[in-house]
Specification:
- The complex is a heterodimer of chains A (about 300) and B (about 350).
- By secondary structure, chain A is mainly α.
- Chain A has twelve helices and no strands.
- Chain A has one domain.
- Chain A is globular.
- Chain B has a domain of about 220 residues.
- In chain B, about 70% of the residues lie in helices and about 5% in strands.
- In chain B, α4 packs parallel to α8, α8 crosses α9 and α9 packs across α11.
- Chain B is globular and about 65 Å long.
- Classes of the chains: A mainly alpha (about 300), B mainly alpha (about 350).
- The interface between A and B is large, with 50 and 43 residues.
């Protein structure tokens, strides 16, 4: 019984951690779906957003005012990215755009550190990181309140974005742009506005992800590497699927924690570092497009 | 005026299929390589030799490997630092455990070991392409470093986890001064570059490029994707492994697995991109650019701000400028520095007419 409880505890902890990964991966999917750009700067955006948020609070701006200020800042970053990086690169190959976003990642990381310094900050969102009392009392499973709140926030964002893509006119435009820049422009879809919108949205998603991760692990440079952790999630879910991201996040989170606890000891631990990637590679062997990715038929 | 192709007629097949067809280009290369062997070791300071030139040569070799995979075969990869680590630690262990093995023997063996690992991690390329493949190669990056870090055998059970590379000994003579190490690196680079130049213009390279341009069409024409892709992974990893071993033995000297982290992979990626995908000269140009830019920026910041400014601030600013330059390169010259060189050459040939 104790074994089963422990298993459940690890599983739930993993699933909730996975939701947090999904939150980061969501930003990737958003931009990839709208512009077929693989935005490597998503991790840097997370870092930039939350560091700015904490920085504003340190300047004496209260929480409720710092939030909209940071949102405006992220919208501005998104618009500037569109104007200065993407617009000159319309219709370039995916690789070129990928490299440009890696450059953007460097710019954002450097800017964040230049403006706000490099020391690790604490971020207190007022959500206690303690086990849920009634759950611990009734079943003996310890699940942090914070993780549950994070999970709920992530779920809300995913549903909102899924609706945005499937139900609104903007969403339709986004999908058209993803299919082909030139084709979308030729039928009168305003590429510039669409891209600004999507990058601004990705900036806000990054802020939310950054606040949750920052409150959990401290606001520090290591947040940048979270983007790499989100990659297996993307692979398993498929680059273009919003629900896929959530399911893949759950798979990655759960398998990572379970592998660390049950398989890790045989290898001296630390397999968390690479187990998600290996899982992703195994997945790719059977489903090269991911779980929910679009299947492309290649012709000569 | 002096740089003319006019009047250079090829009368034999061997003349026609030269690596460098234009006489002037050939002479420039001869002079540069000769100067590299004969003049540089005597006139360059130790700082330049061991701080810039040796890492430049070693990383150029790795960039060459990355370019074979990415520029010639079109397989996006982010695992080059992992293969470098494989090569470096293989070389260390061979030198440590097989006493009679000459240095070049261990160098080649470590390249072969890296190549075998490359084949294993290249297997996903048969199923996936593009960004998906990039993530698959990330697995190799993290996995290789973790294995070396976790199992003490690779580090000879050193308690600190840091190993010290043995001296380079060739035919009983030890190469320990910067100038000598530089010569070893230059020799290895020159030989492997000539091999690469021949590979990419032969059937091997043509198969790679066919796969890059359109893999389905290549397969239809009878090129085995399995063979071509895995061959590219193997040869690319071989170059990365040898480059990594040189990087470790001539530059780092004492190292731990974390020296070959994902950031190094990124830097190599940038070298290839900025140098020019699918060019050999681009690897050298790109590696030089990426290595020298921080040095110049540092000098520049010191000149502008003096010593007063916090080092973390300037390093953050350096990062911003670095990122901006990459974006600018992507916007204005996505074909890289090799293309700029080509345009300059074209201008020279047409001078005084405009092209």
């Amino acid at each position: 019984m104790a074994d089963l409880l422990f298993f459940l505890e690890v599983l739930i902890g993993g699933l909730l951690a996975g939701v947090m990964y999904s939150l980061i991966a969501l930003g990737f999917v958003l931009i990839y779906k709208a512009s077929s750009v693989f935005n490597f700067a998503q991790g840097a955006m997370v870092f930039f957003a939350v560091l700015s948020f904490v920085g504003f609070m340190e300047l004496g701006i209260p929480f409720w005012a710092a939030l909209p200020v940071t949102v405006v800042l992220m919208i501005f970053v998104g618009m500037a990215t569109e104007r200065m990086v993407l617009r000159p690169l319309v219709n370039q190959s995916e690789e070129t755009l990928l490299m440009a976003t890696i450059g953007l990642a460097f710019v954002l990381e450097g800017m964040a550190q230049f403006l706000w310094g490099v020391e690790v900050r604490r971020l207190d969102l007022g959500i206690p990181d303690v086990p849920m009392a009634w759950l611990a009392d009734t079943t003996g499973i310890f699940v942090s309140v914070f993780d549950v709140v994070a999970g709920v926030v992530a779920a809300i964002m995913v549903i909102a974005l899924a609706l945005l893509f499937s139900k609104t006119k903007v969403g339709l435009g986004l999908r058209a742009v993803a299919d082909g820049h030139a084709a979308a422009m030729s039928i009168g879809i305003p590429l510039k506005q669409i891209w600004m919108l999507v990058w601004a949205t990705a900036g806000i998603v990054a802020l939310v992800a950054g606040m949750l991760w920052g409150a959990r692990n401290g606001v520090q440079f290591a947040l940048v590497w979270l983007a790499l952790k989100a990659l297996p999630v993307l692979i398993i879910g498929g680059f273009t699927s919003v629900p896929g991201v959530i399911i893949a996040g759950l798979i990655v989170g759960a398998s990572e924690k379970l592998a660390e606890v049950y398989i890790g000891p045989y290898f001296g631990g630390g397999i968390e570092l690479w187990s998600p990637y290996v899982l992703a590679v195994i997945f790719l062997m059977f489903r090269p497009e991911g779980l929910f990715g679009e299947k492309h038929i290649r012709r000569v | 005026m002096y740089y003319r192709q006019a009047g250079q007629f090829y009368t034999t097949y061997s003349q026609d299929s030269r690596i460098i067809p234009v006489r002037e280009d050939r002479w420039i290369i001869y002079v540069v390589v000769l100067a590299g062997f004969c003049l540089v070791p005597f006139f360059a300071s130790d700082y330049w030799l061991s701080g810039i030139l040796i890492p430049w040569l070693a990383l150029s070799l790795v960039a060459l490997g990355q370019n074979i995979l990415m520029g010639y075969t079109g397989q996006l990869s982010l695992g080059s630092a992992g293969f470098m680590a494989a090569g470096a630690f293989a070389c260390y262990n061979i030198e440590l455990r097989i006493e009679w093995m000459p240095f070049f023997g261990s160098l080649i063996l470590s390249g072969i070991i890296a190549a075998m690992i490359g084949i294993v991690f290249g297997l996903p390329s048969l199923r996936v392409r593009g960004l998906y493949l990039m993530v698959a190669t990330l697995a190799s990056q993290f996995f290789i470093i973790w294995v070396i870090d976790k199992f003490g055998w690779f580090k000879n059970y050193d308690s600190s986890g840091i190993i010290t590379a043995q001296d380079i000994v060739i035919f009983g003579k030890s190469f320990t001064t910067p100038a000598e190490e530089y010569l070893v690196c230059l020799f290895v680079c020159a030989v492997m570059t000539v091999i690469a130049l021949n590979m990419v213009r032969g059937s091997v390279g043509r198969n790679w490029m066919a796969v890059r341009d359109m893999d389905v069409a290549a397969e239809v024409m009878g090129i085995s994707l399995l063979k071509t892709k895995l061959q590219a992974f193997a040869i690319s990893s071989f170059y990365c492994g040898v480059g990594g071993a040189l990087f470790a033995f001539a530059f780092l000297k004492s190292m731990e697995p974390v020296a070959f982290d994902i950031l190094l992979s990124f830097r190599i990626l940038f070298m290839v991109i900025i140098g020019g995908l699918g060019t050999i000269i681009g690897c050298y140009l790109g590696a030089g650019f990426i290595l020298l830019m921080p040095v110049f920026l540092n000098i520049f910041f010191h000149a502008v701000f003096g010593q007063a400014v916090d080092a973390t601030l300037t390093s953050a600013l350096e990062q911003v400028i670095f990122g901006v330059m990459i974006i600018l390169f992507m916007i204005y010259q996505p074909l890289g520095m090799a293309r700029i060189l080509e345009i300059m050459q074209e201008r020279l040939r047409k001078w005084p007419f405009k092209i």
